[in-house]
Design a protein that fits this description.
The protein is of the alpha/beta class. Helices cover about 25% and strands about 30% of the residues. It has helices at about 1-30, 135-145, and strands at about 35-45, 55, 60-70, 75-85, 95-100, 105-110, 125, 125-130. An eight-stranded mixed beta sheet has the order 7-1-4-3-2-6-5-8, with no helix packed on it. The chain starts with a helix and ends in a 5-residue tail after the last helix.
Length: about 150
Amino acid sequence: MQSSVIETLTGAAVVAIAAAFLFFAYSSTDAAGASGYDLTIDFDRVDGLERGADVRLSGIKVGSVTGQELDKETYVARITITVDPSVGLPEDTSAKITSEGLLGGAYVSLTPGGSEEMLVEGDEIQFAQGSVDLIGLVSQAVFSAGGSDNE
């Protein structure tokens, strides 16, 4: 009888610790839902950009990527981002997909413009630069460097 009580208390402690861990993980990863205003951006390519990726302004996280879809008419990648409501962005803001490093993930980097008009819910960022194919650039540099021995 004594051992079954100890086993029951041990099991309850394990379940409580697991629940606390899940609550912490859920609250610290912004999985609870992002609040802010939604903007769309059309990119020619979005290699490595995932839902939930950061949206940064001057290196500071101000939002996240909340959606991705292919425009079947123009064949561009349409990205939806949610930006913190305390961050006002001029309507001539530009966006580009940047890599955190050679092995790091991708994020959207915003550069504000100088317009007096601000973007609002549902607007589109017009100036966008897609991701760069790093492997393609490296292979192009390697193969073009080897072909200059024509003497």
